[in-house]
Design goal:
six-stranded parallel β-sheet; 13 helices; 9 strands
Length: about 300
């Protein structure tokens, strides 16, 4: 491990302290890093202060003192706006690590801006939800130069259980949107099968007992079952309080849909999944994405009664 990435010598600026960023920053504090934290929301700043971070009044103020800057922000436009604000304040050669989930083109543009300003840049979106952020078990999908990946690795390993260097700038984002496109498709397919099973008299427990060890087995079932009972830790047992909100799945599927169209990929399932979640998001954006099973069930009841 190089001395520049040990807790004793590395100052980390963390910009964006929401449901994901807050716990990630807290894990860095617990690991011994000095964390300079900023978020426009007062409640997020207060929580960061309680977690032991040094809270500052502006993003540029955090960046000016940092050796490594982590951003965890809602969308690509905000990432680019924040970079425009803070790059000139950073010390030469500062390593910028964007953990937001954004469009591949925006990720490449952010990296270009950072490098043009004399810095280094990685895109490093995550998978694992709030639970993974809190437990420090996130999966990081990283795009950018290998030497910059090596420099960031000790910091990322504090927050993640697995850190994968996927390729050049933007390729971390590519891995993230491909993964979440598969996840969205999988959850819809599983939910349709569960509702069909209900119609045919198959209980949730028996469905799980069979499918969890049969050819239909998938992560959406065995780790995140969308109905109460079979997997006690799934959001279905807590009124679909989000680990990964429908609004976020809708955003990610929208990014995937854009990438499918832009690259001429025949992706009918991905496009349809984006359409289904976009509709569901209008009434249930604050619910976990696995609550899509309730929408399929309600629409199925309506269809059968109208038929």
């Amino acid at each position: 491990m190089s001395t520049e990435t040990t807790p004793a010598t590395t100052k980390v600026a963390f910009l964006g302290l929401g449901h994901m960023g807050g716990p990630m920053a807290a894990n860095l504090v617990r690991a011994g890093y000095e964390v300079l934290a900023y978020d426009p929301a007062p409640a997020a700043r207060e929580q960061a202060r309680a977690d032991g971070a040094t809270v500052v009044d502006a993003a540029a103020a955090a960046t000016a003192e940092a050796d490594l800057v982590i951003t965890m922000l809602p969308n690509g436009r905000i990432v680019l706006d924040v970079y425009a604000d803070v790059l000139s304040a950073a010390k030469p050669g500062t390593l910028f690590v964007d953990c937001s989930t954004i469009d591949v083109a925006d990720a490449k543009q952010a990296a270009h801006l950072a490098v043009a300003a004399g810095h280094r840049a990685l895109d490093a979106p995550v998978s694992g939800g709030v639970g993974g952020a809190t437990a420090g078990t996130l999966t990081f999908m990283v795009g950018g130069p290998a030497e910059d990946f090596a420099a960031a690795l000790p910091v990322l390993e504090v927050m993640g259980g697995k850190v994968v260097h996927c390729g050049g700038a933007g390729v971390g984002q590519a891995a993230k949107i491909c993964n979440n496109m598969m996840l969205g498709i999988s959850m819809i397919g599983l939910s349709e099968a569960i509702v069909l099973g209900e119609k045919l008299g198959l209980t949730h427990d028996k469905f799980y007992d069979v499918v969890s060890t049969a050819s239909g087995q998938c992560w959406s079932l065995t780790s995140y079952c969308p109905v109460p009972g079979p997997v006690p830790t799934s959001p279905a047992n807590n009124d679909y309080r989000p680990g990964f909100a429908t609004a976020l799945m809708t955003k990610d599927l929208g990014l995937a849909a854009n990438a499918l169209r832009d690259n001429g990929v025949e992706g009918r399932f991905g496009l349809l999944a984006a359409e289904i979640y976009d509709r569901f998001n209008r009434s249930a954006g604050d619910k976990d994405f696995s609550a899509i099973v309730t929408d399929i069930r309600n629409r199925s009841h309506r269809s059968s009664s109208e038929g």
